[in-house]
């Protein structure tokens, strides 16, 4: 055994032997790595495709999606290609495109429900109307007001040469914050634009009040948002106008005249206390 050990030591101690072994190991690593990369490139991978044509602004359902196997190299060389059905089903096709029958899905052609332009208008509560308040980066406190926050709306006006400040509406929920292109500031579709409007859904009578306030020209009316803390949102109270005096002032000084007609829908809302 001793002679065998000495022979092995001599064999491994030979520089030429070490060099040859190193070359053999290196070639082996290259061959194994090359074969692995080849298998990865040609190994089929399942990706989703459209079994039927899916038009823009359409919800993608399970029965509209199939799977097909393609080479992994094709997947790697196709930017934005969606590779999982879970990333497709339940999404909407972008409103400005369509997915042809047999076509693949790309991240740029898909959007979540809340990213759709008409998402907010489809989910307005009964007896409510959408109201848009113009804002900028300063009036939103450096973009600190976010969707689903509950905030207050304040009003300033000039009366008898003095500036009057009053809370107009308290505990009003922000439905969305949008930029000048009409896109949600906090969505992935936004390109970092500054806020231009806050969207609220308010009871019909409150919408009329806000619209009348927007059309007062003699008193330099300004309506602006005031954010509150996290507890205010988590324990949101009823959305309401805080002062009858404010209501009377707006109604008495608005340039908009009152309508004496009431629609069937408005009468139903009034009868239900909304």
Q: Using DSSP, what is the number of strands?
A: 10
User: What gap, in angstroms, lies between the N and C termini?
Assistant: 100 Å
Oligomeric state of the chains present here = single chain
SS element count, helices:
8
Give helix and strand order, one letter per element, not per position: HHEEHEEHEEEEHEHEHH
Number of domains: 2
Low-confidence stretches: none
What is the molecular shape?
elongated
What is the C-alpha radius of gyration, as a whole number of Å?
33 Å
Roughly how much helix do the residues carry, as a percent range?
25-40%
Q: Please indicate the percent range of residues in DSSP E strands (runs of 2 or more).
A: 15-25%
Assign the structural class, choosing from mainly alpha, mainly beta, alpha/beta, alpha+beta, or little secondary structure: alpha+beta
Largest sheet: 6 strands, antiparallel
Q: Give the integer mean of the pLDDT values.
A: 82
């Amino acid at each position: 055994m001793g002679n065998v050990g000495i022979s092995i030591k001599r064999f491994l101690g030979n520089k030429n032997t070490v060099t040859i072994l190193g070359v053999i190991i290196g070639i082996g690593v290259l061959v194994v790595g090359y074969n692995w990369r080849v298998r990865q490139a040609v190994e089929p991978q399942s990706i989703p495709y459209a079994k039927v044509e899916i038009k823009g602004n359409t919800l993608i359902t399970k029965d509209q999606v199939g799977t097909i196997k393609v080479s992994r190299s094709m997947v790697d060389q196709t930017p934005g290609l969606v590779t999982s059905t879970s990333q497709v089903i339940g999404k909407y096709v972008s409103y400005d495109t369509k997915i042809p029958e047999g076509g693949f899905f790309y991240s740029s052609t898909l959007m979540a429900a809340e990213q759709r332009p008409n998402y907010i208008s489809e989910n307005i509560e009964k007896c409510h109307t959408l109201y848009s308040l113009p804002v900028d980066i300063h009036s939103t406190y450096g973009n600190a007001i976010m969707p689903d926050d509950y905030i207050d709306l304040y009003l300033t006006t000039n009366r008898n040469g003095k500036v009057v400040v009053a809370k107009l509406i308290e505990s009003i929920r922000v439905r969305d914050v949008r930029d000048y292109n009409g896109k949600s500031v906090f969505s992935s579709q936004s390109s970092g634009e500054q806020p231009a409007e806050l969207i609220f859904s308010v009871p019909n009578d409150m919408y009329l009040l806000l619209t009348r306030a927007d059309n007062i020209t003699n008193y330099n009316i300004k309506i602006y948002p005031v954010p509150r803390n996290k507890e205010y949102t988590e324990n949101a109270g009823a959305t309401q106008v805080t002062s009858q005096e404010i209501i009377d002032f707006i109604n008495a000084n608005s340039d908009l005249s009152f309508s004496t007609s009431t629609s069937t829908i408005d009468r139903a809302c009034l009868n239900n206390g909304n």
